[in-house]
Each structure stands twice: as C-alpha cells, then as structure tokens.
Design goal:
Blueprint lengths: L3 H6 L6 H19 L14 H24 L1
Helix pairs in contact: 2-3
C-alpha cells in the first residue's frame, strides 16, 4: 500500500466534485470492512484486511484535508 502522502499527491489536480467521489469510494471500503465478520481469510491476503482498513482511514483523513482546501478555493 502507498503512503497517505503518495495517495493524496495523485488526487491534488482533481476538482472538488471528483474528490467527493473519491471520498465515497473510500467510505464504501471502510464500511465494508466494519460491517463484515472479522474472520481470517482462508488464503493469505497481503496486505492484510486490517492493514488495508487502517490505510483507508489514513487516506480518508488526508483526503478530507484536501477537500477542505478545495472548498475554501
């Protein structure tokens, strides 16, 4: 997984509306993890589901900062 800084760098040129779409995609991934039973998968997933969840939360935090900057204009 990429760092939150690298993630946000790829989104800096997007419009406010496009950033809101990216936010919704991240929220869907986060909700999917939070609403699923936390069982170990039969096969080994790298990075783990927990790591993906944590990264998505960090990405969301950075994305919200960028959305605020775009909103302020």
């Amino acid at each position: 997984m990429m760092s939150p800084e690298t993630f946000i760098t790829g989104l800096e040129d997007k419009s406010y509306a496009e950033l809101l779409i990216e936010r919704e995609k991240l929220l869907e991934k986060i909700k999917e993890f939070e609403n699923s039973p936390h069982q170990q998968p039969i096969f080994d997933i790298q990075p783990s589901l927990d790591t993906r969840y944590k990264c998505n939360l960090l990405y969301l935090a950075k994305l919200c900062e960028l959305i605020e900057k775009k909103y302020k204009g």
